[in-house]
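Subject: Sanity check before I submit

Could someone independently write out the structure tokens for this chain? I want to compare against mine line by line before I put it in a report. The sequence has 245 residues.
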Amino acid sequence: MASNAATTINPEEARHFGTLAADWWNPAGTSAMLHKLNPPRLSYIRGAIDEHWGTDSRNLRPLAGKKALDVGCGAGLLCEPLARLGAQVTGIDAAAENIAAAQDHAEKQGVSIDYQAVGVEVLGRPGEYDLVTSMEVIEHVTDPSLFLRGLVEALAPGGLMILSTPNRTALSKLAMITVGEGMGMIPKGTHEWKQFITPEELTTMLDDAGMEVTNMRGMIFTPGHGFQIGDNKDLNYILSARRKG
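---
Independent answer below. Compare away.
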């Protein structure tokens, strides 16, 4: 892709998340909610990998020999587990501060990951990645459809895409903004509810980009069990998609 391609990066959003970089890996810090979300996400991702490629669930490195791209990677909460599953991982993020924190953490953990502070639209690696993931990112970009086209361009033939994002419902507004941000569980200014995308809207955008959704589940929260994968998509949802045809 040409290096002068349009970008979907919102500079204000990048600055906001950049200010959180130093605390990203602290499970009790400003990114505590992401740490709680990560286990069910990883469970879903692992299941989607096994379903898509027919790998054995007992295989500790089902992504061996495959390349993975995590878009909006933050400080690497998903990149490092993907690397441990065997993938050659690239993580990109709009905030240079996040990339610096990700590189530092990966180095300390002895994990090799290619981190870059760049938008997916100008990554310039068409068809290179077997797995493309983007968790809680599409609601922060300026043009979701253009963003999705960037993800699709990076995906290799026969590849798998996995996305998660909050649903635009009364529940998500109450839980994530009124309560979450209002009580300090989520940093203020993290979300703009009007930018949340419904499952129907995202399915249509993916269809327009040449992708078909193969699986979609909700991410629910209960006080006793935290976040879990379930059927209710009112708060948040995660999906798998592949190229049509």
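---
OP: Matches mine. For the report I'm noting this point. The longest helix spans residues 32-53.
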